[in-house]
Write a structure and sequence with these properties.
Elements lengths: L5 H12 L4 E4 L6 H8 L5 E4 L3 H13 L5 E5 L3 H4 L2 H10 L3 E7 L25 E4 L6 H17 L8 E6 L19 E3 L9 H10 L3 E5 L13 H5 L3 E4 L15 H7 L2 H7 L3 E5 L6 H9 L4 E6 L13 E4 L2 H9 L9 H10 L10 H11 L5 E4 L3 H6 L9 E3 L10 H10 L5 E6 H6 L13 E7 L16 H6 L9 H6 L3 E5 L2 H11 L9 E6 L2 H24 L1
Parallel strand pairs: 1-2, 1-3, 3-4, 4-6, 5-6, 7-12, 8-9, 8-10, 10-11, 11-12, 13-14, 13-15, 15-16, 16-18, 17-18
Length: 562
Amino acid sequence: MYSDKKSILQLAALLRAHGVRKIVLCPGSRNAAIVHTLANMDDLTCYPVTDERSAGFFAIGLALQGGSPAAVCCTSGSALLNLHPAVAEAYYQQVPLIVISADRPAAWIGQMDGQTLPQPGVFGSLVKLSVNLPEVHTEEDEWHCNRLINEAILETTHHGRGPVHINVPISEPIYRFTAKELPQVRTITRYQGLSVYDRDYSALIDRLNAYNKRMMVVGQMNLIYLFEKKYVKSLYKHFVWLTEHLGNQTVPGLPIKNFDAAIYSMTSQRQDDMAPELLITYGGHIVSKQLKKYLRTHPPREHWHVAADGKIADLYGCLTTVIEMDPFEFLEKISSMLDNRPNNYPLMWENYCRTIPMPELPYSEISVIGTLIQALPENCAIHLANSSTVRYAQLFAVSPNVEVCCNRGVNGIEGSLSTAIGYAVASERLNFIVIGDLSFFYDMNALWSQTLGANVRILLLNNEGGEIFHTLPGMDKSSRSRRFITAEHRTTARGWAGERGFTYLQATDEASAAEAMALFTAPEPQPGPMLLEVFTDKERDTTLLREYFHGLKEKNTKTKEQ
């Protein structure tokens, strides 16, 4: 029988799954549940050592004999500190050592409870990774726990070998051993480069070819990474390719970019039918909440993430394999190894997404963004600020000759204008900046730059507050919400723009927007930078957005009924 603590069960099952077979067990009360569970696993060899200092070095010896990671488990408090010398030795000798420490619940640390001290991160820079497991109460806790353990064990042999620390908080009751078997757990594997020398290389390709419904999701990529056209034909037909404008020209063929609206409009049956069996991802952040929700609720059998740094990025909660190599090198390698059997899955997605129309809305934030995108001159750059702006832009088709930029690293509103201005100063092309009022006024200091050129054109969407907050479920529109959450204001950029030498344009309705946009998007050089301030009503903006999405869903529901 094993402990009933799900964090301990995940730990035990993953140690087994990753091939850890030698574990040194130190006595104690807080770690008794871990010790009992590990000692009852027939495929583990456990070694009892009372002195933690000696136990750590004993475990190093086990790891050195054979080269596979070995583990040492201790109780809470000063017992863990006694492992410090061995951890230091393992770090500088590059020995794959897994330190497992039991701990009190976080609430009792520093409260004069027995055998307590701050254990997470106690080894500092002498371990390759330190993780603090959550106590498992929900499915999300269990996923988090599983991911952290996978990360820690994998790190023992990642970019060199070395020790890691897994801290396991355990609440009372400790001594309850009711689990009859270990759970089936998700095991994440890592391939550090694909080559003929990889033992499991062929097996990986066989796994890829075994799936019919294969999806490739490409996150944010800079334009400097261009996809080589010679590989397009051999790759495009094998996958559904989903990307946003931020993916730029880093996807072969004609990728699907309006998938956010498409997923929202799908019936539950269609969502089931179109879910992938294999998901492969590369690139940075994805904007779409719909896609994240869809893949989390319709998880593929496998999710492979391809990244040069080999880090675990489990965005959809179903990661199974990390491939540590440049994404384009990976795609080039697999292009000639994919089977050539017919595959209707990509066509299924393409045909459905063609039925999703771009918004045709009356004067609003959304319609103005659409007008700008469709009027952009060739070979320019468009910079999208975060929040509503970057999301609305995904609803419209952008020319492949336009570069799309956005600060999606942390997704904050600060710095969008400054980043775009810095980019434009070093660029010879026209640079269009689309930004909401809160983002603009927060970052107005960007316009202090003495190097502003005539290639800067700012579209300022001013609806007197943070409109996106009105779309949040459960958000009321009381006076307090308006003041403290949506940050309502009555500010205009006219004076600031004039003082900084901008040509100032404004729009308050469809006619004035059309007139201003013609000058704003003209490809001919202008005497200086330009700022077009568009005034809209945020209540109307949010209403039109909801009506567009609800209309898509209603259309598909009626189609199904017919």
